[in-house]
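help with these tokens:
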Amino acid sequence: MCREFGAVTEAAALAAGRWVGQGDPEAAEAAAVEAMRAAFAQVPISGTVVVGKERDPQTSPLAVGSRVGMGGRPTDIVLRALEGANIVARGQAGAISVLTAAAPGNVLQVPEMYMQKIAVGAPAVGKVEMEADIEQNLEAIADSLGLKVNELTIVVLDRPRHDDLVATLRRAGARVKLIQDGDVMASIAAAIRDSGDHAHIGIGGSTEGVISAAAMQCLGGEIVSKFWPLSRREIEAARERGIEDIEATLRTEDLVRGDLVLSATGVTSGDVLQGVEYRHEGARTQTLVMCTKCRHVRFVETVHSFSPDPKAVAFWKVR
């Protein structure tokens, strides 16, 4: 099934990639959603979107509650057809299409809201705490990696809500890498050895938190998180999903468990994935596919031919 899920995010990335630099994030996302919906129709699952955009499934394809697949094994799906629609609109780096697939009941069905998050690689698992001071967590991460705090690079979304966090990180001596969007790939990079990024810290979407947890499950890293509700309605939405303690710290295994697949395809090039590259006769994509059951992490480069001439794909160099 790994290959099929890879094809789903590739289809969404190919559609969204046509909108790079066009200044229309809504059109880019709509194209990705429609392409992903159509691609899911070729996957032999009986899937249900359990975490994602909360809209009316009758009018919004791939909203929470939507059914996907051609029929087969029951599967829970968490997705962002396009993470980084604004990135695509501005022609900037790091946009992806991403999904996670798991057995029913193995994903915490979080409502669409904010979460505080700390994502780290394998050496720092169990060594960071949501309630600890930033300085304490930085020391723990640095010690786990055999580094000094001033040698750490911490990735943070560039948002006004993070101004105090960024100031604290810099006072502690850490280097701060600000990104416009894309906290899923920021978490993945933190768990990849020699990526140059050592942690992702900050407040972002709950869907991205669950997908990041799936990535940590595959890569041996860890995410530590906590809900960040902005209204009473969001607290009630969490309780409607069986989440009684909105103040609880949630670690990787609280968000996802069991075997799962994660597929992410680059739309615009970033630190981990190359974006879609178009030519007259076709396009090239790069996809990261991870599976806990197969115990593999694959970077898959695919040439998609738009020409009936089989020779058309022969002119692509390996990058």
In short: The chain has two domains: 2-107+260-315, 114-255. The chain has nine helices and 14 strands.
